[in-house]
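Supplementary Methods, section 5.1.

A reviewer requested that the exact input to the structure prediction be made available. We therefore reproduce it here, unchanged from the version used in the analyses.
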Amino acid sequence: MTIHNKQIYFSKLNVKIFIAIVIIFCLINKSTRKIIIENFHDFKNYTLIQLSGKSSISKYNQFHIDNIKSINKIILSDRNGNVITLKKKNKPLTNWTVNNKFNVRNDAIETLLSTANTIRIKKPVAKNAEKKVIDFIITSGVKITFFNNDTKIQSYTIGSNTSNHLGNFMLLENTSQPFEVHIPTHYGFLSPRYGIQNNSLDINSWRSHNVFNYSANSIYKIQYISKNNNSSYTLFTDSLKILNYKNQPIKFDTIKVFNLLNSFSSLNCETYKNNIDDFINMKPDECLIVNSDTLKIFNILNDSIQNNDELNFNVNRKYAILNNKDLMLIQDYVFNKVLININELIE
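The structure derived from this sequence is encoded token-by-token as follows.
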């Protein structure tokens, strides 16, 4: 093949490749095209800045933390005075606590640590937008600081989400240059991954949802109390007996009892609520006592809770108070297996 023929061949090949790219580009959906175009422009701008030698991005102003295993304390604080302190423990099942009071949800801390490791600077904030971004960070930002014991590893303030909702504006401590920060493989803004909702922190978003976590051999007593006394009972495991509400022993189905005893591991509530004062003096519809833990249950009469679109309207729920301290929503699907009356245990 002559040089001239090769040129013609590669020219035709390039045209075919270009046409194929255009066809593929047209076939993908609009949102994907938008992301491709945006990322292309970001890459182009980043490359031009790097080539010009004027980049404000350097190894000295990176947000991510390479060694997240060294992190054993994290402090978050919002502009409303809410402070969340997460501390690592040396126990395998409950590794972190929040404000020295509650165990932390495993998925919440794993998401936060993964975020701390995988965030990257996307680009500097444009000069004409800097003041607005910084003003928001100063007035409404949430500061997060990572520690190894008492040694500070990293600290920055998280601002509003970017206009395309693919990241957040952030400002490193003791600096004046804000950046757009994102996770390259994540499509969505980052603040929820830090437990931030509406620029505010809530301890309940970090708390473990665990209500009961008993193995069968650790249970020595179960007491179920209903408004209908005939349905109530007390189960003792030391000699395996069940008493009715008159303290009279009854015959029971051993398999059903063992199934009940094996149903108290990893029982979780759906969410915590803050209006405990509305219920604290009410008589519960049901009460479940396991060893020394008491769960008071209240039926939901207001359909607006059951049909709330933010929750799942197909899921039936009840209010519950654990040990007169915490109000929560529990799902029937989860708790029906332990909220059983005496008639479900008899032979």
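Helices lie at 3-27, 30-52, 106-118, 130-140, 254-261, 303-306, 332-335. These observations are discussed further in the main text.
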